[in-house]
Amino acid sequence: MNSLALGGVLKRIYEHFDMQSFSNRLRVQKVIYLLQGVGINLGYSYSWYIYGPYSTGLTRDAFQITNFKNVKPIGFVEPSTEKKFQEFTKKIKQKNDFWLEVASSIHFLKELYPNKTKSSIINEIQNKRTKFNNKKDKILQVWEDIEGWII
C-alpha cells in the first residue's frame, strides 16, 4: 500500500494524525494490524517486537504522509469490505493505546501459536513489558472484548 492510500484509510479513523508522537506511531501500527486481522488486508507484514506486532513497511509509509490535513478519506470498492471497515472503526475508534497494544498482541500470538492456551498467551504479554506485570485483569478484559471478533 502506498502512503496516500494509507493516509486515506487513516483519515477515516482519525481526524488528526501525525507520526511525531510515540503514541501515534503505536496506534497506527496496532490499528492497521487489527484491521488486517479482521480480514482487510492492506499488504503489511508484521513481526513480534517490544510493543507487540510491528511492521517496518507500515512505518515507512506512515512517515511519508506529510500533510495529513489535506489527505482525502478513501473508501473500499467492495461493499462487504466497506461494511467490515465501518464496523471495525466503531469498535476501535475510542480504544486507548493499552487496549490496542494488548488486543494486537493477543491476536498476533494466537495466530502464531494457535495451540497456546489463553493463560500462556496472557502470561507472555504480561512478561513482555514490566508495565503489564500487574494488569492481568485488564488484559483479560481486552481478551473478552476481542473474543469472537478477531480471535
Give a verbal description of the structure:
The chain is mostly helical and 151 residues long. The mean pLDDT is 90. The chain has helices spanning 3-13, 22-37, 56-63, 79-92, 97-112, 118-128, 136-146, and strands spanning 47-49, 52-54. The longest helix is centred in the N-terminal third of the chain and has 16 residues, at 22-37. The chain starts with a helix and ends in a 5-residue tail after the last helix. The protein has one domain. Strands 1-2 form a two-stranded antiparallel sheet. The protein is 58% helix and 4% strand. It has seven helices and two strands, in the order ααββααααα.
How many strands?
A: 2
Average per-residue pLDDT, rounded, comes to 90
End-to-end Cα distance: 25 Å
Helix fraction by DSSP (H/I, runs of at least 4): 55-70%
Widest β-sheet, arrangement of strands: 1-2
- Alpha-carbon Rg, integer: 15 Å
Q: How many H/I helices?
A: 7
Biggest sheet record: 2 strands, antiparallel
The portion of residues forming beta strands comes to: under 5%
Task: Give me the secondary-structure category.
Answer: mainly alpha
Low-confidence stretches: none
SSE string, helix = H, strand = E? HHEEHHHHH
How many domains? 1
Tell me the overall shape: globular
